[in-house]
Amino acid sequence: MTARLILASKSASRRAMLDAAGVAYEAVPAALDERALEASLVGASPAEVAEALAVAKAAAVAAVHPDALVLGCDSLVVAGGQRFDKPASREEAAEHLRFFSGREMALHSGAALVRGTTCEWSHSALARLHVRPLSEDFIAHYLDQEWPEVSHTVGVFRIEALGVQLFERIEGEHFTILGMPLLPVLGALREAGMLCA
Asked: Is pTM, for the whole model, over 0.85?
């Protein structure tokens, strides 16, 4: 068995998923200019972008830790034909929420396993989240409670917290919404000999 698995992320929800699933790993956040990489992916679908970012994050950490198997993940949100990044300010978060109000949000979650310079596996998954109409009062109350924690999330929500109140219907796996397609990741880790089959 490979001795080390590294999660190339500082995401609390991704760490919590691996912890709950009994996966042993180290967390080493990737140093990567995501916006520059996205700019180079003109014409790629949102699923392809999420997967490419996951591969790039894993590769960045694998370059420093060539003896380890590195798991990279990325999530991105599309609503109304627009891609959304993490909000840079509370004001921008409120703008995002106003835009999402009454719309369908497509959340693409990518994952990849890289060892050395080789991407051994990658995958993307999609969840569709139907945002209910949001009042200005709710948006203000919501951000009073959830800011700045949601500044680290592309959809301005934590589904495991007050963010669940944004939605009237959700299609897709809970793990995908949390930021990692966990079941396919676990399957790939078994294939790689990192977990007992």
From this structure: yes
| pLDDT on residue 134 | 98
- For the question of residue 67 being annotated catalytic, the response is no
Tell me which of 19, 33, 67, 74 is the catalytic residue.
74
Q: State the Cα–Cα distance between residues 92 and 111, nearest whole angstrom.
A: 27
CA distances 163 to 35, 114, 188, Å, are 25, 32, 30
- pLDDT tens for 124-142 read 999 999 999 999 999 999 9
Q: What domain count does the chain have?
A: 1
For residue 197, tell me if it sits in a domain. no
Residue 10: which domain range?
5-191
The domain that holds 155 is classified in CATH as 3.90.950.10
